[in-house]
Amino acid sequence: MTRREPRSRDGGSSASLRRPRRVAVLGAGVAGLAAAYEVSRAGAPERAQALVLEAADRVGGKVLSVSRGGVIYEAGPDSFISAKPDVLDLARELGISGDLAATKPGSSSVSIYFRGRLRTLRGGMWPPKASALLSSGLLSWRGLARLALSRWPGSEDPVGTDESLAAFVRRRFGQEALERLADPLLAGIYAGDAEELSLESTFPQIKTAFAKNGASAARPPWRPAPGQSLFMTFQGGLSRLPEALCAALPGGAVRTGARVLALSRRDREWKIETSAGDFAADAVVSALPAGALAPAVERLDPELAAVLREIPFASTATVSLLYDDSSLPVRPEGFGFLVPRREGKAVSAATYSSSKFPGRAPEGKTLVRCFVGGAGRGAWAEKSEEDLIRLASEELSEILGLGKSCRPVEAKAWRWIAANPQYTVGHALRLKRLESCLMGHPGLILAGASYRGVGLPDCVRSGRAAARAALSPRGGFPAVV
Ligand SMILES: Cc1cc2nc3c(=O)[nH]c(=O)nc-3n(C[C@H](O)[C@H](O)[C@H](O)COP(=O)(O)OP(=O)(O)OC[C@H]3O[C@@H](n4cnc5c(N)ncnc54)[C@H](O)[C@@H]3O)c2cc1C
Fold first, then answer.
1. Phi, psi at residue 53, to the nearest 5°?
2. Looking at the domain assignment, is residue 225 inside a domain?
3. In this structure, what CATH number is given to the domain that contains residue 269?
4. How far is the C-alpha of 54 from the C-alpha of 33, rounded, in Å?
5. Which candidate, 227, 162, 231, 237, places its Cα nearest to that of 200?
């Protein structure tokens, strides 16, 4: 920690007027690294410096790509959407646009596993095309008729109240569309439960489109960036992004093995106690998950810690299974499938990684990544890695009809316990309460997936916005970005 310095008349230290603005960034996930990058971009090191404090011995947080034997395993996220420009813009700035990879042409169909069979939806996920729905056999005639009725203006959406995604879809499209389409397709993105998730905080664009244009606004919530596919990744895996961010930072800007324990503020200076010693800063960007920040601010502000703890997190696991093509009765084609919760499976979704993106597995091999757990199904994700692999390969065999003799030649599982923030009903109000607590702690800014978007583009946007707020002489408001 830096030595205390003589104070100037305004209460700050005279030395603080000369030295660069020191920004401590907590957490080296994508949001934290993007924040540090933005600070380093903001000017010469004489003007601003960032120090990233990370508990783990590696950077990237949830982003972790493992390459082995020509296979790229993604432990956490496997892609990002191009509809939000933030990752694409950052990739351009970092000079790694050439490493971007689009989805394979013609691979975009998604299936839903329903009553023992995969039902393929061609031509996009939400809203599904009427013809695709008809041929899929996913909805009953009653369910289809109910969905067709949604084309006419019906009951108004409640004004000024936050409602669940399920309440909205049930009212607009009916119960079948909720259980068999919206919960797996939309809530699944958040590893969430449509009954719990806030429509306003998860899909504000759907709410706004309906408010403006009525039911005719059943358009896709996202459109790909021009010339790009909707889902994108990097050729060697998503870890390319945190690696390139790290490489763009000045040497020594990231301190791994430094678990943040407590934050305090005195004489306009923040003190960060960590497992690797204490550090001083003029501003702090927390890019920690809300639940990890809570204990560190308990002494500083118990109310702030309590609101942070109110944000729930769901547990998930990913299980990657590699097959020899020769052992597969049919090679899975398309993006993958989703499993509605009523089917009672541990696997809630699967991506046919080698069909979706190029270069994920060598010729002659097929890579499938299963997603286990999520809100209300978290217990599955907490099983041992061995059990997860057994469970996922058994269920995959059943769902794809692979037959008993078809076994993966390699398998890897990663557990993400209490890792997926849930924007449940009341989330927007919780953010307001956080903002109001932070009024009392100038220079402390909250960024990352816990607050205003879980996807990688949102995390990049949030980290960069937090850095700009931290550099602002006003102390940084809004403080939850
Ligand atoms: C299984 C899974 C699949 C996903 N799939 C996708 C996808 O395909 N596309 C997509 O866009 N998004 C996806 N997401 C979401 C996305 O990956 C995350 O929202 C995003 O990576 C979070 O970034 P972050 O920087 O906010 O937080 P994190 O990545 O969680 O980073 C937080 C960092 O803080 C560190 N930390 C924690 N506590 C402390 C402490 N006390 N002191 C210091 N450091 C600490 C952690 O070690 C970590 O490095 C997925 C998430 C999961 C779990």
1. -110, 115
2. no
3. 3.50.50.60
4. 10
5. 162
* Per-residue pLDDT reduced to its tens digit, 296-318: 999 999 999 999 999 999 999 99
User: Is residue 24 over pLDDT 70?
Assistant: yes
**Mean pLDDT within 330-359:** 94
Residues 183 and 140 in one domain: yes
Q: Are 81 and 230 within 8 A, CB to CB?
A: yes
Contacts 24+ apart (CB under 8 A), 270-277: 270/24, 270/443, 270/444, 271/1, 272/24, 272/26, 272/53, 274/53, 275/55, 276/53, 277/1
Q: What is the pTM of this model?
A: 0.94
- Which of 62, 72, 293, 308 for a ligand 1 pocket mutation test, highest count of atoms within 8 Å of Cβ? 62
Under DSSP, the state recorded for 125 is S
| Same domain assignment for residues 298 and 151 | no
Q: Do the domain assignments include residue 4?
A: no
Query: For residue 115, is it within any domain?
Result: no
Among 127-131, 205-209, 242-246, 477-481, which stretch is predicted with the lowest mean pLDDT? Answer: 127-131
Cβ of 131: how many Cβ atoms within 10 Å? 10
Q: Is the pLDDT assigned to residue 326 strictly greater than 70?
A: yes
Whether pLDDT at 3 is above 50: no
Domains contained in the chain, number: 3
User: How high does pLDDT run on average in the chain?
Assistant: 90
- What residues does ligand 1 touch, defined as CB less than 6 Å away? 26-32, 53-56, 61-63, 76-80, 259-260, 287-289, 292, 316, 318, 416, 419-420, 448-449, 454-456, 459
The parent domain of residue 139 ranges over: 129-217
* Per-residue b or e along 105-116, where b marks 16 or more CB atoms closer than 10 Å to that residue's CB: eebbbbbbbbee
